[in-house]
Write a structure and sequence with these properties.
Blueprint lengths: L8 E2 L8 E2 L4 H12 L25 H7 L11 E10 L6 E9 L3 H15 L2 E4 L3 E8 L7 E11 L2 E12 L2 E9 L5 H16 L1
Antiparallel strand pairs: 1-2, 3-4, 4-9, 5-6, 6-7, 7-8, 8-9
Helix pairs in contact: 2-3
Length: about 200
């Protein structure tokens, strides 16, 4: 099931005032179709979309929240014209890919991915209650979209082994966000394959 989040007015992280966005119904429908109609993900992922991925912890650092939110359907609000998000189960134990698509007016997508790249650099680790401790390492992401950034988080969630990759790419006026989670480990190359597949779907 696809949940489309249309944010009409919101606050961008680090911005002190409200930002207006004009939602395009046709663009929203297109993003929904991209995620719902025969998604072409790598082998091992379900072709059936589920509810958007939810961050399973509450990062205290706003930079860490900023880089995880887009894949959960909460992309930056400035100049947002359409948004959709979904998740897809993988065939490994506890494996899930969360995908977010957000389309922007003008050149705002480029500005947003620059801001998210800065936030990714600033998010050194994630700490939350209940024994959640994750260390972040920047990952190179090459040959995907117009520009892309990524990182891996490894450690413990509520005291149990947990792994999460996050990758973000810009393709024209669209921001593509992917998280890939699993118990103890995830394959980073597989994360990049998901990102590349979704960028291709959004650009088709």
């Amino acid at each position: 099931m696809i949940v489309v989040l249309a944010v009409v007015c919101g606050l961008l992280a680090g911005c002190g005032g409200p930002v207006e966005s004009h939602i395009d119904a046709q663009a929203t429908a297109r993003l929904r179709e991209v995620l719902n109609k025969d998604p072409r993900l790598p082998d091992g992922f379900s072709a059936r979309s589920e509810e958007p991925w939810r961050v399973p912890f509450t990062p205290a650092d706003r930079n860490c929240r900023a880089v995880l939110d887009p894949a959960a359907g909460r992309a930056p609000a400035r100049a947002l014209t359409a948004q959709a998000a979904a998740s897809f189960e993988g065939d490994e134990l506890g494996e899930v890919a969360g995908v977010g698509l957000a389309r922007y007016a003008g050149s705002e997508a480029a500005g947003h991915i620059d801001d998210l790249a800065d936030a990714l650099e600033a998010c050194r680790s994630v700490r939350s209650g209940g024994g959640t401790r994750l260390r972040l390492t920047i990952l190179p992401v090459e040959d995907v979209g117009d520009e892309a950034v990524g990182a891996e988080l490894r450690g413990r969630l509520d005291g149990y082994p947990y792994a999460l990759d996050v990758m973000l790419a810009r393709s024209g006026d669209t921001l593509v966000s992917v998280v890939h989670t699993g118990i103890a480990k995830v394959d980073t190359e597989r994360t990049r394959q998901v990102l590349s597949a979704v960028v291709g779907m959004a650009s088709a």
